[in-house]
Amino acid sequence: MSVNKEIKKITTHTIQKMKDAGEKISMITAYDYSFAKIFDSAGIDIILVGDSASNVMAGHETTLPITLDQMIYHASSVVRGIERCLVVVDLPFGSYQGNSKEALSSAIRIMKETGGHSVKLEGGEEVLESVKRIEDTGIPVMGHLGLTPQSIYKFGTYTVRAKEEAEAEKLKRDALLLQEAGCFAIVLEKIPAKLAAEVSKSLHIPTIGIGAGGACDGQVLVMHDLLGINTEFKPRFLRQYLNMGEQVTGAVKNYITDIKSGDFPNENEQY
Predict the structure, then answer these.
(1) Sign of the CA dihedral 173, 132, 69, 111?
(2) Most distant CA pair in the chain: distance in Å?
(3) Cβ atoms within 10 A of the Cβ of 144, count?
(4) Same domain, 30 and 72
(5) pLDDT, tens only, 8-66
(6) Of 215, 216, 211, 175, the residue nearest 190 (C-alpha)
(7) In this structure, are 50 and 64 located in the same domain?
């Protein structure tokens, strides 16, 4: 009888210990069972079920259209594919802003219906009441500051945030407020590296950067970007690790050629 080696699960406590030890944290987005399984077995620390599913899975221009039900579908698919990593699920636009009761019920639905381990929401001081309410129920919350894609119509652009002193000061203050409210980590998106370094140093909880420089305690990228599935998106902060779009196109073209020529299926590929 084979004995399964016990899998050490990554928790919010593990993530904190990594920051304390100076070990960098790896995070990637995923939206389905198959990719989640691959990323988990590769050794990723955190999978973010991002509302970026609105863009990369559904083809919307922004993250705004995705619903809570759709996020629950994606997150439950991801959770079925993992054995060890921490799963963070985005609260989608409209499911928490301006109403902490609604924020709590959205977070509870995500935890109960997906099996995920924590939720993430965007914003600072303006979402504190929601963060506290969710935290008080025992649900871990990850914050998100800097470029907050759900506020795209307010900003009007996906450019670097917090370059001006007033916005930088607000971001520093918001980071401390989120930490006090109980967040276990904060994503810093598209802000100057110097500011991200300052914020990361000022907090005892980890920061996860995306376009925020190397001084953050961890990094996150959208899987479609780093794997080269989404070829149109080429910001400075993206390192592409695979050219999957090209490889898949080539494979499918070969498949079509083999069907058209009568080469597939051959004698060994039939019953």
Answers:
(1) positive
(2) 71
(3) 25
(4) yes
(5) 999 999 999 999 999 999 999 999 999 999 999 999 999 999 999 999 999 999 999 99
(6) 211
(7) yes
Task: Establish whether 125 is a catalytic residue.
Answer: no
Catalytic site residue from 189, 198, 232, 269: 189
- Counting the structural domains of the chain, the total is 2
pLDDT in tens, 115-164: 999 999 999 999 999 999 999 999 999 999 999 998 888 877 788 999 99
pLDDT band at 4 (very low <50, low <70, confident <90, very high): low
Q: Would 2 be classed as within a structural domain?
A: no
For helices 68-81 and 33-42, the axis angle rounded to 10 degrees is 50
Domain containing 270 equals 243-271
Measured CA to CA, the distance from residue 97 to residue 62 in angstroms comes to: 17
**31 close to 71: Cβ distance less than 8 angstroms:** no
